[in-house]
Amino acid sequence: MSFTFRAVDPAGDAGLLHSWVVQDYARFWGMGSATVADVEREYAQIQASGHHQARLGLDEGTPAFLMERYDPAQSPLAGLYDGRPSDVGMHLLVSPPDVPRPGYTTAVMAAVLAELFTDPGVDRVVVEPDSANLKIHALNERLGFRKHSLIQLPDKEARLSLCTRGQFDGARRLLAGHRLAAIPTAAPLEGSPA
C-alpha cells in the first residue's frame, strides 16, 4: 500500500464518485439517489467553497478513497461544541473493494489522519458520523478518536468525536504492535508543501 492524494476534479471524477456513493454500504454518505450530475454539482460546490476540500486518495495510483477536509467553524458544527481554530473536520469514504483486504480501511484512515496532521496548524481532527454507523465508530476509536457528544445536525443525529495529534500517535504505536505493523505514511497532496 502506498497512498497519495490529489484534489477531486468534479467533472472528471463525478462518474467514479457516483459509482461509490450510490452503493448500499455508502448509505451514510447520504447520496444514494444522486445522479452523476448531482455528484458533480456537489463536489464543484465543495471545491469552490474556500473552507471545504475534497481529495481523492490513490493506492499505487488507483483511486481508492475519498477524503473531505473542512473547517468546522464554517459547517453545521459551528456552536455545537468547543471548537478551536486548530480543528479540522474530516469525512472518509473508501471505494468498494474488488477483494476484501483485512486491515485496509484502518490503513486508509491512518493515512488520512497522517495527511491531515502534516499541516502544522492542525492539532485536532473532528468527525461527526451518523450515530447508527457502528463500524465507523469502532474504526474511529481504534485510531485515537474519543467520543465528545451526540449532536443533532440538519440531516442526522451524529456522534461527534475528536482526535488530537497525540491520541493518533498513541493509536498508531498500538497498531504497529499488532497485525498492522506497516501503517502507511501519507504523501503530501500534489502541489502542496511537503
Terminal CA distance reads 20 Å
CATH class: Alpha Beta
Total of helices: 5
* CA-based gyration radius: 16 Å
Number of strands: 7
Q: Give the percentage of residues in beta strands.
A: 25-35%
Q: What general form does the structure show? A: globular
Strand order in space, largest sheet: 1-2-3-4-5-7-6
At CATH level 2, the architecture is 3-Layer(aba) Sandwich
If you average the pLDDT, what whole number results? 89
- Which structural category do the helix and sheet elements fall into? alpha+beta
Main sheet record: 7 strands, mixed
- Helix/strand order, N-terminal first: EHHEEEHEHEEH
Q: CATH topology, which one?
A: Aminopeptidase
Spans with pLDDT under 50 lasting ≥5 residues? 180-194
Helix content range of the residues, please? 25-40%
Name of the CATH superfamily: Gcn5-related N-acetyltransferase (GNAT)
- Tally of structural domains: 1
